[in-house]
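Continuing the batch. This is chain 6 of the set; chains 1 through 5 are on the previous pages. Same settings as before, nothing changed between runs. Recording input and output for traceability.
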Amino acid sequence: MSQWTALTLVALAGALAAAAPAGSTARFMPCPLKWRHLSSAGGELPVPVTGTQQTASLVCDIDGDGLNDIVIAERTKSPALVWLRRTEKGWVRYVIDEGPLPIEAGGAFHDIDGDGDVDLVFGGDWRSEKVWWWENPRPNYDPGRPWKRREIKSDGARQHHDQIFGDFDGDGRAELVFWNQGARKLLWAPVPADPTVSPWPLREIFSHPKLKHEGLAKADIDGDGRPELIGGGMWFKYRNGTFIAHVIDEKQAVGRAAAGLFRKGARPAVLFCLGETTGRLMMYECEGDPGAGGRWRGRDLLGVDVDHGHTLEVADVDGDGNLDILCAEMRLNGANEHARMWLLLGDGQGGFTPTVMAQGLCNHESRLADLDGDGRIDVLGKPYNWQTPRLDIWLNMGR
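Output for chain 6:
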């Protein structure tokens, strides 16, 4: 066992109990779950990339073997995009794009070309006007052979932080939606009949004269059986060919977004956390009909500021049938040395027990997913530029 693994089997009962920053009255329990921590820093995982700005991550079953794989993007060196294939002996790195390529935070996966496997989408950062998709070559994988890259958006304004797929118009087919920060717009891109044709037709959902919004999620907000789009402190209702923006909290324009059924028998609640600055982890529930002027009430779930909370994920981590929340802080440029990684355990009635999994590590676009195929939800931890290139995994060993 390496030093890293030994130090971070995160059932460390007392070590993490005082997890709040100096001067705060809030105290958090250590996480009651047992975790096996693997890290590229300790040699248990392959080093994912060579550059130091790991901008994006995804978890999905790329090769169709029933096990989730890991995708990592980096924007300064080659390779720009890789996937870590889960095998019986661990993870093996495969190159998707040699790059270098200025990939921004975000990303999404979907079977774009209808051939039965997931393809990938990422957008360019402040230097690029492009959004790309990569065609999955299954079953012809080669660790050194990149995938075919095509363009969804090839010109116009730059920076595309966050993408999502969903059937928002109810036609039975998923569409791509993404923010274009340079244009201060939210854009809708139905998948063309021939997705290899570039660029795709784009339609504007929303624009703002000043703000550059971030964050995307989806949930059936109004109970009509169709997912609604969530992001930038708003939710968006599709009706008669257009999207109508409904404000939840205008102060949440820039940050992470998530949603889930945290209270049984109720409508989905919406989560926002500021990923690019300091703010609170907030949960919003609507009193009344959200589509007819219902009032959204926000609740502070932690009682302390979250410093660059660029990770916000929802899943049933402890296996009790109730949704839990992962919220974690960055260590941007090495700052925030006491960065916290919270797991809020839900009770199914809208209540949470905030616990701390780890401190002092960086989380940026970290993910919740089953990474070892045992049916339990694990954590993929990805830093942006702290001790990079680096990757961490916490395997859920139960209670």
